Amino acid sequence: MEKDMNVRSLIRDNISKRKNSIDKLMPKFFFLMASVSIITTIGIVMTLITDAIKFFEKVSFAQFFSADLAPLNANNPTFGILPLITGTVLSSLIAMMVAIPVGLTAAMYLSEFATEGTRRVIKPIMEVLAGIPTIVYGFFAYSFVTPLLMELIPSLEAKNVLSPGIVMGIMIIPMVASLSEDAMNAVPNAMREGAYGLGSTKLEVTIKVVLPAAISGIMASFVLAISRAIGETMIVAIASGSSKNLTFDITKSMQTMTGYIVEFTSGDAGSGTTGYYSLYAVGLLLFIFTLVMNLIAQYISRKYREEY
User: Fold this and answer.
1) pLDDT tens track for 273-294
2) Residue 192: which pLDDT band, with cuts at 50, 70 and 90?
């Protein structure tokens, strides 16, 4: 009996020691894993800021926020950012004009009108759009959408901002639809049943009850989709062209900030030149744009969030 007690004590002590060692080790491991994204973000931001400072040592802010962009001019290169901002904003606005109505109505159908079987079929098919490589979307915009639009708009150039804007909108439809549907599904059924009890139709319940109750999640999906459109690269690089003139004509070729970065990283700018450092200045501005969009999404979610 005493021998059994000794064995049990040894086993208990061994288990206790293992637990203590694991309990001490795992929090450190979890902290390390959680720190990876933070360290990576800090590294990216520091790289952008460090090299952007080198750019602004040679180019003033006034020159940077101007409309004169000719970075490859051998005699007098200029680095005005306004044409790139215009191209980025216009293409993103066109994308949202496509993604918001289509994505929101798709979310309304999936959340309020579709049967469970229909939802299981349609939603995975729709979300396949999110898995298609963006370079495929770029060639689709250039080789299919642009020729189709040229039949309708004779003045449309072969490279333009309208076609990639539309295709970007198609690409981010799953983001708007999925996030908006999740927000609608979070609305308690008691609110729907109360509206039905008052004699409301399904459409009235969807528009007057569910949408207002889910507005924080829906607005957050819009802002995140805009952020995704602003950061899109390959679609605009292929289908939008590289025109560096400041224009608001969406039938003309324009260059976005991401398109500019792609063009220069392909070898047009030698390492250590002003053009090379301009990539980091443009990248920093793009980072600020997307950061602001994400902060706006968080603000909207907090301000209009409904607690049920």
Assistant:
1) 777 888 888 888 888 888 888 8
2) confident
Nearest Cα to Cα of residue 275 among 51, 46, 49, 87: 51
Fold of 69-304: MetI-like fold (1.10.3720)
- How is the chain split into domains, by residue range? 2-57, 69-304
For residue 106, the model assigns a pLDDT of: 92
Q: Which residue has the tokens 């995975």?
A: 124
Q: What is the DSSP string of the chain?
A: -HHHHHHHHHHHHHHHHHHHHHHHHHHHHHHHHHHHHHHHHHHHHHHHHHHHHHHHTTS-HHHHTSS-EETT-SSS-EE--HHHHHHHHHHHHHHHHHHHHHHHHHHHIIIIIS-HHHHHHHHHHHHGGGGS-HHHHHHHIIIIIHHHHHHH-TT--SS-SHHHHHHHHHHHHHHHHHHHHHHHHTS-HHHHHHHHHTT--HHHHIIIIIHHHTHHHHHHHHHHHHHHHHT--HHHHHHT----S----TTS----HHHHHHHIIIIIS-TTSHHHHHHHHHHHHHHHHHHHHHHHHHHHHHHHPPP-
Task: Identify which of 11-25, 84-98, 118-132 has the greatest average pLDDT.
Answer: 84-98
CA torsion through residues 298, 205, 111, 131, sign:
negative
Read off the pLDDT of residues 98-145 as tens digits, 9 standing for 90 and up. 999 999 999 999 888 888 888 888 888 887 877 888 889 988 998 899
